[in-house]
Amino acid sequence: MYLVTAEEMRRIDRYAIETIGIPAMALMENAGRAVADEVEKRQAKTAAPGGRPPRWLVLAGKGNNGGDGLVCARHLADRGYEVRIVYAVPPDTLTGEAALQRDIALRIGLAQEAYSPGAIDWERWDGIVDALLGTGTSGAPREPMASLIREANGSKRPIVAIDVPSGLDSDTGAVAEPCIRASVTVALALPKIGLLAYPGADAAGEVVVRAIGIPEAAVRSENVRTFVLAKASLRDRFDVTLPLARKANSHKGTYGHALIVAGSRGMSGAGLLCTRAALRAGCGLVTWAVPEAMAASLTGSVPEAMLFGAADAGLGEWRGTSAGEVAAKAAGKQAVVAGPGLGRWPGDTQWLHKLWHGVDAPLVLDADALNMVAEAIASGEFAVWGPRKAETIVTPHPGEMARLCGESVAEIERDRLGAARGLAARYGLHVVLKGARTVVASPNGTAWVNTTGNAGMATGGAGDVLAGIVGSLLAQGFEAEKAAAVGVYWHGAAGDLAAAGRSSIGSLLAGDIVEAL
Ligand SMILES: NC(=O)C1=CN([C@@H]2O[C@H](COP(=O)(O)OP(=O)(O)OC[C@H]3O[C@@H](n4cnc5c(N)ncnc54)[C@H](O)[C@@H]3O)[C@@H](O)[C@H]2O)[C@H](O)CC1
Ligand SMILES: [K+]
Where is the YjeF C-terminal domain (predicted)? Predict the structure, then answer.
């Protein structure tokens, strides 16, 4: 499923109207009717007291979003609802199709008023349709609309938002003060990015996408490069269904060999989780490289993996001198994961630089390896590292992403998609920006926003598990975008499955995610 910006939606809309010739009023009619259907569906669950007709308020702005609301009001009235339109602005300032809808509403005698602060008896109404602002929003809602939004939120009535909750930035998910807090948002034609990205996703409530008669040809006229990562997209885009299929006639060599470079004294668990996740995600063989002094104590901790002890002068910590050995160990492997629990040591960016070129296989960099890259970027060194022989996936959380981009966490979180896309394009990396609604961005400009996962996964080791899964999929021959996208979806889905089996998701452990794979 596509995810669009306001500008992309506008262009698709314009193509449908101007190039294909579908009247704007027809689209608006479909939009308003779709919203009325959704209101009816919700209202049916809670019958109005005493069998009286349901009472709904429609808050209308002056643009096309308001026009959609006026169509919705008309259809609700036709279905026996008591409806009242509240214009946020003087009705004579409405323009275009919205003005035509205003005249229609007037001619059929729908109840209406211009908003006056404090004048609405909210208690009287069963629900509210938010038709104040849509994709034409610029900046935070201005007065008097801002007061109307605050009153509506304070009313505690269910709010059905048309297209986007008013006050939401459709492109980033940033919410203005105030922003409508909807129980459901009816996204018209295509979902907007801001409906999935937090904090917008919280303001949107449940998101329902409804067709309004925009032909597929209009959608295709726009080269949309952002997609929802959901079960259907795995199937349609990547030809993958989970659990992964296996050929009856196959052997461990069929599923690849991954090298996991992870863990150090005090952080062996990161390597252990990464290694177990890689095995559970199905690659044929895993070699786990650790500083040599740790190898003895880890013997048998994951009997299915091979252990490799890298020279460490007996300290259980990584040293720059091990780069050659690790690169040699990577020969013949189909994927390498480096980073979880590595720690930092003097000269570690040079160590990583050696792996950067010494490893011929696809590489996943996570955790401390990302901090090394961030330092190399900051010092200007990274610019001269040059391209690798195979693809590279980086899996930063927002803190690591902030260091990689030289920005603050708040700046990254304000536009996660933009940040991930920017880093991917700048350095030719596949970027997995973790967090609620993980973003996967590729150097070719494609990006995915994930729908699986839950807050219980905000726990130590969950990232190590993801790195292991992605490495495992690379080892099994998935190309980088597919490995990253499928891995992210699967990791979240496993987290959801693991959470479903617990009374509180707060008790979820990273190891549970591995077992749920
Ligand atoms: N998807 C489609 O193909 C269709 C979508 N429809 C609906 O149209 C809106 C977008 O309509 P548009 O007229 O471009 O913009 P808005 O209604 O969102 O609002 C524009 C209006 O509001 C004023 N305004 C802008 N920002 C603010 C602010 N911060 N505070 C106060 N007022 C503001 C501005 O002056 C403009 O005049 C889309 O979301 C769908 O709901 C079509 O109906 C069918 C086709
Ligand atoms: K709206």
Answer: 235-517
Ligand 1 in reach of 349 Cβ (< 6 A): no
Same domain, 457 and 494: yes
Give this prediction's pTM: 0.94
CA of 6 to the centre of ligand 1 (A): 10
Domain end marker among 162, 194, 224: 224
Known binding positions:
64-68, 130, 134-140, 163, 166, 270, 341, 397, 434-438, 463-464
Query: 464 CB less than 6 Å from ligand 1?
Result: no
Give residue for tokens 């809602």. Answer: 141
Instruction: Please work out whether the CB of residue 214 comes within 6 Å of at least one atom of ligand 1.
Output: yes
The finding on whether 29 has its CB within 6 A of some atom of ligand 1 is no
The reply to whether 92 falls in a domain is yes
* Closest ligand 1 atom, residue 176 Cα: 29
Q: Which atom of ligand 1 is nearest to the CA of 170?
A: 39
pLDDT tens across the length of the chain (517 residues): 899 999 999 999 999 999 999 999 999 999 999 999 999 999 888 777 788 999 999 999 999 999 999 999 999 999 999 999 999 999 999 999 999 999 999 999 999 999 999 999 999 999 999 999 999 999 999 999 999 999 999 999 999 999 999 999 999 999 999 999 999 999 999 999 999 999 999 999 999 999 999 999 999 999 999 999 999 999 999 999 999 999 999 999 999 999 999 999 999 999 999 999 999 999 999 999 999 999 999 999 999 999 999 999 899 999 999 999 999 999 999 999 999 999 999 999 999 999 999 999 999 999 999 999 999 999 999 999 999 999 999 999 999 999 999 999 999 999 999 999 999 999 999 999 999 999 999 999 999 999 999 999 999 999 999 999 999 999 999 999 999 999 999 999 999 999 998 989 999 999 999 999 9
Do 207 and 255 reside in the same domain of the chain? no
Q: Which ligand is nearest to the CA of 182?
A: 2
- In sequence order, what E strands does 3-60 have? 55-60
Q: Which atom of ligand 1 is nearest to the CA of 32?
A: 43
Q: Does residue 230 belong to any structural domain of this protein?
A: no
Cβ proximity of 305 and 287 under 8 Å: yes
Nearest CA to ligand 1 atom 3: 13
* Residue 182 to residue 152: CA distance in whole angstroms: 10
Identify whether the C-beta of residue 134 lies closer than 8 Å to the C-beta of residue 194.
no
**Phi and psi at residue 341, in whole multiples of 5°?**
65, 20
Both 360 and 322 in a single domain? yes
The answer to whether residues 84 and 116 belong to one domain is yes
H or E element at residue 257: strand 257-261
Is the residue at 173 inside a domain?
Answer: yes
Total number of domains constituting the chain: 2
User: Whole-angstrom distance between the N-terminal and C-terminal Cα of the chain?
Assistant: 24
